[in-house]
């Protein structure tokens, strides 16, 4: 066992959590499994492996910034429920 029930109870106390007997047994078992798996991962030879910040390679997802003509006022207001002149009318939210 990597972690004891007493240690789990101590951490729960520090976190101001209260668990029943069944929950304490369950969390002790789960935390023990996690710690044993961490030992297994630590035993893997990672010599020559570069550290990574993400599991997948991230590329810049932004599009190129190109100037294009915008919509005409009539087109942009075509589906507006209550346009006023060349503006969108919205309900008042501040009194």
Which short descriptors sum up this protein?
95 residues, mainly alpha, two-stranded antiparallel ribbon, 3 helices, 38% helix, elongated
Describe what you observe in this structure.
The chain has 95 residues and is mainly α. The chain has a domain at 5-42. Helices cover 38% and strands 4% of the residues. The protein has three helices and two strands, in the order H-H-H-E-E. A two-stranded antiparallel sheet has the order 1-2. The chain is elongated. The model has no long low-confidence stretch (mean pLDDT 90).
Report on the biggest sheet. Answer: 2 strands, antiparallel
Total count of helical runs of at least 4 residues? 3
**Distance between the amino and carboxyl termini:** 63 Å
Poorly predicted regions are none
The percentage helix is 25-40%
User: Rounded to an integer, what's the Rg over CA atoms?
Assistant: 29 Å
Content of β-strand: under 5%
């Amino acid at each position: 066992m990597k972690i004891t029930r007493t240690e789990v109870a101590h951490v729960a106390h520090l976190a101001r959590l209260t668990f029943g007997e069944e929950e304490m047994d369950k969390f002790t078992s789960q935390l023990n499994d996690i710690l044993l798996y961490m030992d297994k991962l630590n035993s893997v030879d990672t010599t020559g492996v570069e550290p990574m910040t993400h599991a997948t390679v991230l590329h810049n997802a932004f599009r190129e910034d190109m100037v294009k003509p915008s919509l005409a006022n009539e087109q942009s207001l075509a589906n507006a429920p209550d346009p006023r002149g060349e503006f969108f009318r919205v309900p008042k939210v501040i009194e």
